[in-house]
Amino acid sequence: MTAMQSHICRIAVFYDGTYFSKVSNYYAYQHERRSRISLRGLHDFVAAQVAANEQMDTRRCKVVAASYFRGRLNAKQALEQDALYSDRSFEDVLMREDVALHQQLVNTRADGSFEEKRIDVSLALEAYDMASLNRCDVCVLITGDSDFVPLVRKLQALGTRVMLLGWNFAYERDGRQYSSFVSSGLVDRVNYPVAMEKVIDAAPRGGDAMVDNLFLRSDAPPQRTPTR
After folding, report:
1. Long-range contacts of the stretch 152-160 (C-beta < 8 A, 24+)
2. Residue 87's pLDDT band (boundaries 50, 70, 90)?
3. Whole-structure pTM value
């Protein structure tokens, strides 16, 4: 369904914080860009992508809400992992860009990893509430997790279109292989899938302003992202 040209297309962006942190760290430390993702640049990119898919003027496509969901270490854990400063710095970034932060304490497993299913549920509930109350026309999910397929079905049943920003990448560090892949089931289900790594790598640096603006400039304030 295409939004009427005379109306504003309202966009709501939902960040899977653990996923976004992994992506941002990849571009900061592994990719040739050597820069973190800019939230402002990402929202401008989203508006342009939605406008193209909805066949609307970009000026009529507005990000009206953005929410960032992440697990939170308790105070003792954050102090032990020297994470208090980076967490607060990134919270400052979210506030500057008017992105609402949703947090829940994480459960620590025996191997030291974290269980964050509850925060994924919070993201799904917030997105569904936003769509069911008719506060947005397009929901943008920044994740790669197949667990969100049921959410996509529910959103589409309400008449809300769903855009997915996902990254596939792999690299080697210290003799170990690391990778991140977007669920094919999730890609197949959404209305507007965007393979972000292809968009970025297809654009030479300095050759596409929209893609260049996805990254923080060297003189921009620091935007550290938590590792969870």
Report:
1. 152/186, 152/189, 152/190, 153/189, 154/128, 155/127, 155/128, 155/131, 156/191, 158/128, 158/131, 158/132, 159/1, 160/131, 160/136
2. confident
3. 0.87
